[in-house]
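User: two proteins, same treatment. go.

Assistant:
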Amino acid sequence: MRDTLLSLSGPQIMLWGCIFFATLYLATGAINLGIVRVLMPLWGKGSPLDPRPLGPGQTARELRQSALAILLFGVGSVVPWGFLQLGWARLATDASGWQIALEIGVLVVWNEVHFYTNHWLLHRPWLRQFHLVHHRSVVVTPWSSYCFHPVEAMMLGNVILLPMLVHDFNVWSLLSVPVFSIVFNNIGHSNYDFLPDADRDRWWLNGARRHHLHHACYQGNFGFMFPFMDRLCGTALPPDAANTHIDRHMARHQAKPHAAPPA
């Protein structure tokens, strides 16, 4: 794999990068929908988190914006490839299975720190305008996962660059990052409570609830899949933080005017 990557040209890397990210996005999104709309209800497990309807044209907008993000991610694949070509980074060729597993664990933690930092910055006034593209999806779907403004896509998409400069990772460790990232992203945007018991909020699958709360409340819960950064930085939201917003919306839209009495 290492020799194959290094033998490709820049345009080939960009083309295969686009195919890779598009496949990840479409496949995980379809699997997500199958799980939350078919399997989980069939098993009688969990429930939807936000009962409100999607915004007008939301799915089409998410797919269009995600296509642009996929293009940027794919074209951006030339940057880590360029690091290797220039000798700024190298790939480990003789890593054991245990070393690869350890590298993936380190990258999972780094991904959480990197995402939290950039996500927090995207909520600051000077960057907020770019993040609002993603927050137009108040009720999230799997297709929200890559629905980014180009600036946000570039900020979040550079996650492996710094690690590559400080350590020689195995190629499979690096390729795992977009894989576990889109899986975590789909869980976070599934709008499904896999573990309804609030006392189990520390469980990683409850990243769906935590990220639903972020979209419903806008501020707080800036972490990706795990809660440790929000707890460390004091930005964690309580499990019922969105109830007021949802109840107000449902009451407003379910209220019907009384029919006029007959003359």
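Protein 2:
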Amino acid sequence: MKTHKISLEISSRWLLLVLSLPTNSATGRMRIWRNLKALGCGSLRDGAYLLPFGEERQLALQELADETLREGGSAWLLHVLPQTEEENLAFQALFDRSGEYATWLQTLADARPGLGNLKPQEIIKLLRKMRREYEAFLSIDYFPGDGSNTLSAAWMDFMQMAESLLSVGEPQAMQATIQALAIADYQGRSWATRQHLWVDRVACAWLIRRFIDKQARFVWLESVTDCPPDALGFDFDGAAFTHVGERVSFEVLLASFDLEGDRGLQRLGAMVHVLDVGNGFVPEASGFEAMLTGARQNARDDDELLDKISMVLDALYQHFSQVPPATT
């Protein structure tokens, strides 16, 4: 039977790690096996592990080969070219993740009904765990197909449901003219917003205390209907300062008190906007969200959370205030 050679392109190149460890190296064997699993290697047989060619993957396998040698074993890292298209497809079949995807999809399905009974901190903790698992799947999904599309759709649906539970009471943008206000007229006031602070609310509270009303007193509302009549509300429907047009509450405060000319605050506003409504990209946004998530889990109450995150926002403000070096 005549076979046809396939073209020797990078897409058909493979990395093969062949290794053997001494039987008395149980700890080293387990560590190396876990790393092979994390890389998503396909197994040709015991001790022979395959990956699609890639420079980063080659470096990772070389590190495992070196570790194997340090453990007293033997290791060879080889480049492999399949001889036929059928052989190449057989290699790809070793990376079928459908069974793992089905298990994880069932985990998502099982978690959905109980989301509404969890506390915000518990929802955040679950989201972080599931996000790590989802991103781990993506990192080793070398031949994505219908299964990975189904996985991504299910994850987006789950994440949106969880975030909607975390964002109960999020304000709807209104169309209005933002009034110019004098900071001097807003000193020593009570300011109120929804409890369980998240991005926009905690950034607004920091902005108020740092740049608008240094003697501000904050009221964290379980229900916005309980807002004291003498308090200035922010970031909820009907509040004195809330979403207007495309601006989130932080940006509305900047515009109201003539603070938009401050470079650091303007860039902070862009970060808050990205995290609150999802439009745009700010590299620092994901790091701030991670720190806020961690602080939210550990803080006893919103006063402590504001104190902790204020230090982070102070640092980000300094960072954003720096003028970038001129390019030549």
